[in-house]
Amino acid sequence: MTKEVGKRPGGKMRRSKKKVCAFCVEKAEGIDYKDVNKLRKYVTERGKILPRRISGTCAKHQRQVTDAVKRSRNIALLPFTTE
Fold it and tell me: What is the pLDDT of residue 20?
Protein backbone atom coordinates (compact mmCIF):
# COMPACT_ATOMS: atom_id res chain seq x y z
CA MET A 1 0.00 0.00 0.00
CA THR A 2 1.55 3.29 -1.10
CA LYS A 3 0.67 6.68 0.23
CA GLU A 4 -0.37 9.16 -2.46
CA VAL A 5 0.95 12.69 -2.29
CA GLY A 6 -1.66 15.35 -1.54
CA LYS A 7 -4.36 12.95 -0.34
CA ARG A 8 -5.89 13.11 3.09
CA PRO A 9 -6.88 10.01 5.06
CA GLY A 10 -10.52 10.36 3.97
CA GLY A 11 -9.47 10.28 0.32
CA LYS A 12 -10.39 13.90 -0.43
CA MET A 13 -7.93 16.31 -1.99
CA ARG A 14 -7.26 19.47 -0.03
CA ARG A 15 -7.23 22.71 -1.99
CA SER A 16 -5.44 25.65 -0.46
CA LYS A 17 -6.80 29.13 -0.98
CA LYS A 18 -4.90 31.21 -3.55
CA LYS A 19 -3.21 34.22 -1.96
CA VAL A 20 -3.95 37.57 -3.57
CA CYS A 21 -1.33 40.27 -3.96
CA ALA A 22 -2.17 43.14 -1.60
CA PHE A 23 -0.55 45.67 -3.92
CA CYS A 24 -2.57 44.52 -6.94
CA VAL A 25 -5.80 44.76 -4.91
CA GLU A 26 -5.16 48.38 -3.93
CA LYS A 27 -3.78 49.16 -7.43
CA ALA A 28 -0.50 50.56 -6.11
CA GLU A 29 1.67 52.37 -8.67
CA GLY A 30 4.87 51.73 -6.76
CA ILE A 31 6.12 50.77 -3.32
CA ASP A 32 7.61 53.58 -1.25
CA TYR A 33 10.80 52.67 0.62
CA LYS A 34 9.99 55.31 3.26
CA ASP A 35 6.77 53.52 4.29
CA VAL A 36 8.39 51.40 7.00
CA ASN A 37 5.13 50.14 8.53
CA LYS A 38 4.06 48.53 5.25
CA LEU A 39 7.51 47.06 4.60
CA ARG A 40 7.74 45.44 8.04
CA LYS A 41 5.03 42.97 7.01
CA TYR A 42 7.42 41.59 4.39
CA VAL A 43 10.45 41.20 6.67
CA THR A 44 10.90 38.56 9.38
CA GLU A 45 11.98 39.28 12.95
CA ARG A 46 15.49 38.21 12.00
CA GLY A 47 15.59 40.69 9.10
CA LYS A 48 15.04 38.34 6.16
CA ILE A 49 12.74 39.30 3.30
CA LEU A 50 9.76 36.96 3.02
CA PRO A 51 9.51 34.97 -0.23
CA ARG A 52 6.58 35.24 -2.65
CA ARG A 53 5.02 31.93 -1.70
CA ILE A 54 4.68 33.03 1.92
CA SER A 55 3.89 36.74 1.51
CA GLY A 56 1.43 36.21 -1.36
CA THR A 57 2.69 39.06 -3.53
CA CYS A 58 2.94 38.73 -7.30
CA ALA A 59 6.36 38.59 -8.99
CA LYS A 60 6.26 42.22 -10.11
CA HIS A 61 5.49 43.58 -6.67
CA GLN A 62 7.84 41.15 -4.92
CA ARG A 63 10.72 42.66 -6.89
CA GLN A 64 9.58 46.15 -5.86
CA VAL A 65 9.27 45.08 -2.20
CA THR A 66 12.80 43.66 -2.29
CA ASP A 67 14.23 46.87 -3.74
CA ALA A 68 12.29 49.01 -1.24
CA VAL A 69 13.49 46.94 1.73
CA LYS A 70 17.09 47.13 0.55
CA ARG A 71 16.86 50.90 0.08
CA SER A 72 15.30 51.46 3.49
CA ARG A 73 18.03 49.33 5.07
CA ASN A 74 20.74 51.41 3.44
CA ILE A 75 19.40 54.66 4.89
CA ALA A 76 18.77 53.00 8.29
CA LEU A 77 14.97 52.98 8.30
CA LEU A 78 14.93 49.19 8.63
CA PRO A 79 17.61 47.16 10.45
CA PHE A 80 19.71 44.60 8.60
CA THR A 81 19.45 42.15 11.52
CA THR A 82 18.17 42.03 15.08
CA GLU A 83 20.76 41.36 17.72
Answer: 84
